[in-house]
Design brief:
2 copies of one chain form a homodimer. The first copy, chain A, contains 15 helices and 17 strands. Chain A is an alpha+beta fold and about 525 residues long. The longest helix of chain A has 26 residues. Chain A is elongated. Chains A, B: Its main location: cytoplasm.
């Protein structure tokens, strides 16, 4: 947040109409009542001060945070959420949680805790954040319900750092329950919209924590692999003028006195960087598609992992760079994210992701032959339908035992105008898709780098040359042969983990019907 | 580029009206004429085939690229641009360029090159891309005009991989000339708009190559440092609904049947991740500001390097994390990007960037005292103007010899409503800005993490509570104390290198008047 935004906020505040003030007054009254209630509650909890010897051992600080006493070595000091809480006579059992991990804790009336302090602890709402000072004790019997099974914490001081509202819009244990499990006992699961509507809570579940930590890993593996290969990271603009890209499926932006568009892909900019001698580039950033597609695998905004590179002799150098990058990602996930993968599998069981080294590369004609053999009727220059892609994925898995492969040499007719034709067979092209578990995660090609051939191809596709003038002009001052592709981050995570909805791998998904939170 | 976009393009092509066809026909005729001319030129260049013994040693391949003969060990095979070319009797001297590096090359009539081949080489336009096979020879006298001064290449084969148009919109050597240099000799410099209008060529200059390779380094250093500190990378949405953020300086997007906005900062989402137990997060992505500011340091779209973290005891933990990250960036640049820094300095001289370890942290009152002493009149709770920020930067540099420092504890009155007040002095706040060479690069703060206090602060600022409801609600289910800040990537690069216009450090800058390329 820069200074400018601060000023922006101030202007906004000034522009604030007075019509909202009445509502605000109401809110204020509500807030005041609540504060009063809380004060009463705190007084109740604490009882009269004289009789509580432990009054400094608990409380609700706000601005100045408590610190470890530091005097007793055996005591630990930690911050955690109250995952569950259960009062039992003179004791209160808490399960304290930090991300995916939790531990049992205990406040018991004795020389370190008063009756009032136990009552205070028992009243702490689930999901509240507490600081506790405690001793760590071995337990005789394993605590099966916690990740830390061999110990429990005996609490000597406890402070509520942030109190949660008592009524949660969803329960974390319901949100991680596998579909169908516990149905007989009438246990609930949480539907996806409720999860997404309350994403701040849903993201605390072990499943969400695992998914997004793994996603962070995918980005890092992608970038590190490419950086090691000599790629340069670039930043491409998301607001683009009308001229440079097509008009379909594009979001329009009001731009001062004119209109602009949100970039559907960084392709033109990646290619310009190649024409500007950056040789090999990648970028990671949002990509926008104004498609009214309400499917399990479409988002209107997703994260593109984009690659573009000049090659020396043959566009298969590009395929090799991309597939090797994917293999490095798969290996990195397998080797460093087993905990996360197992955590997700608990809720969403799936087969481990399989891949070959080197990556399997099939030609389009080979794939067609496999499909024909399986009884599919389709023409040589026809594109693959989604069901046929999935079927092909299964056939390839059976035959080659891999969940990842490249389909090379698509018919020229089904690819965009900027795709380089196959010099040996004009029916085909130097283009490829890549698939994970039978679903497409990348589409790419050698691009036409010659302005004249590009003009001819565009005319063949009946594209208005005026609209793509700046694109074509980029290649007029010397452009090396090059190719690339764009990968959808959310799809890679979804398919790697064997999930079935892309909204599970987008932190704050956007689709035609969802713009919040 | 995914399959969907491919389909998008096809639809667009189909939607193409016929009104453009006439224009296309014209273009086609033009293209055909050009092709004919080129063919003639090629024929002229090659002469009649019978008499040219070297006809296989040069040419203009398009789809199938030539390869190294591989027979002669002493020969190298390389791809480069023709930087300059000069024919001289039976010889043609070329300067070949790869990014920042160049070397002299020679084609001379002899047993490896015919007269026709030398003529062919002499006709290759500047900025064309060639593949050459050549022997490397030591030279007696250093070639001062090239980066490779001790050798030259004797070309035995040469192929034009991509021919540049003869007339360039700008000359690379003009684009890197320091302002004022060579004025007497009537040498040109290139103004910024011309550079930006022809960015594909301008990005080939040594200065641009250095700037954007260094920028790539800044991103890597930022992420690597934070990853080592246990931060998780997150991806936040750029299309947001009306409710979550303010209305000033926001771009509007048409979103199917409704309207949406482009995110001014990822702040809400970063904070939601903290409320969702991600503990420490960062993100790198575009940030949009619909401000009609036409200054040297404002863009309408820039890259935000954003940080947010929970802290244990005091918000200075956040400041320490951010300043240490900046210091790691400065050190990484100093240690690994000296070539790039020196290259940029050749065209834009500046003092080396100085920083202290640990970073200097001044309180707002101390800064005011320094300004008062320097004769500036301003009130205790007044914000710093841009000229005063710059003056302060100079005073700090004089006194502490650093180009980077933190200004802490801003007056509460000049900060946004979500800023945590100073618990010890209600006039001030737990907020900070960071400065490089006297210009702000980051604004940040401890955020109010308590829904009730946040409501009070918003009401104090007369903000419509309805509009920020989802923001406030994020803190109702337990939120740890946290803080963060956002850094502008382009500003960091500009100020580190001592440049004076942010358009130099944005590859494809966007401002109120520029949307292309």
């Amino acid at each position: 947040m820069t200074k400018d935004e601060v000023q922006g906020a101030t202007e906004e505040e000034q522009a604030q109409s007075k019509k909202g003030l009445k509502k605000q007054q109401k809110e204020a009254e509500k807030a005041a009542k609540k504060a009063e209630k809380q004060a009463k509650l705190a007084a109740d909890q604490q009882g009269s001060e004289e009789e509580d010897f432990a009054k400094d051992r608990y409380g609700v600080p706000l601005m100045v945070l408590p610190t470890k006493t530091g005097l007793v070595d055996q005591l630990i000091w930690l911050r955690a959420r109250v995952h569950t809480s259960r009062a039992k006579g003179k004791q209160c059992f808490l399960v304290l949680r930090q991300q995916q991990f939790n531990v049992q804790a205990l406040v018991a009336v004795g020389d370190r805790a008063s009756k009032q302090m136990v009552k205070f602890a028992a009243n702490i709402t689930k999901e509240s954040i507490v600081d506790v000072e405690a001793s760590v004790r071995k337990v005789e019997q394993k605590i099966e319900s916690c990740t830390q099974q061999d110990v429990e914490l005996h609490i000597e001081r406890i402070f509520v750092i942030s109190q949660s509202e008592a009524r949660l819009p969803l329960q974390l244990e319901d949100a991680v329950r596998p579909d169908g499990e516990g149905e007989e006992e009438g246990r609930a699961t949480v539907n996806q919209d409720t999860k997404l509507d309350n994403r701040v809570i849903d993201l605390r579940t072990t499943t969400s924590q695992a998914i997004f930590r793994l996603q962070s890993g995918v980005c890092k593996l992608f970038r590190d692999t490419l950086t090691n290969k000599g790629f340069v990271e670039i930043q491409t603009p998301k607001i683009i003028s009308a001229a440079s890209e097509g008009g379909a499926n594009v979001f329009t932006v009001s731009y001062f006195k004119t209109s602009a568009y949100l970039a559907q892909s960084p392709q033109l900019y990646k290619q310009m960087c190649i024409c500007a001698d950056f040789d090999k580039v990648f970028c990671v950033g949002p990509v926008f598609r104004a498609e009214d597609s309400n499917t399990h695998r479409h988002l209107t905004e997703f994260v593109g992992l984009d690659i573009e590179m000049a090659f020396s002799y043959h566009y298969h150098e590009v395929i090799d760079s991309i597939t090797d990058t994917m293999v490095q990602i798969f290996k990195g996930l397998r080797d460093n994210f087993q905990t996360e993968i197992l955590t997700v599998n608990k809720q969403y069981p799936s087969e481990p992701f399989k891949f070959l080294e080197p990556t399997l590369r099939l030609e389009y004609t080979e794939a067609l032959a496999m499909l024909h053999q399986a009884g599919v009727e389709m023409g040589d220059e026809e594109d693959l339908s989604t069901p046929n892609e999935k079927l092909l994925g299964r056939l390839v898995k059976e035959k080659y035992d891999t969940d990842f492969y490249v389909l090379d040499k698509y018919p020229l007719a089904v690819r965009p105008f900027y795709t380089m034709p196959d010099p040996n067979n004009a029916k085909y092209s130097n283009s490829y898709d890549m698939f994970m578990r039978g679903e497409e995660i990348l589409s790419g090609a050698q691009r036409v780098h010659d302005a004249q051939l590009l003009t001819e191809r565009a005319m063949h596709h009946q594209i208005d040359l005026e609209k793509i003038k700046s694109y074509i002009d980029s290649f007029r001052y010397g452009a090396p042969p090059h190719g690339g592709g764009g990968i959808g981050l959310e799809r890679v995570c979804m398919l790697y983990l064997g999930l079935h909805n892309i909204r599970q791998t987008s932190m704050f998904p956007r689709d035609p019907k969802r713009l919040t939170p």
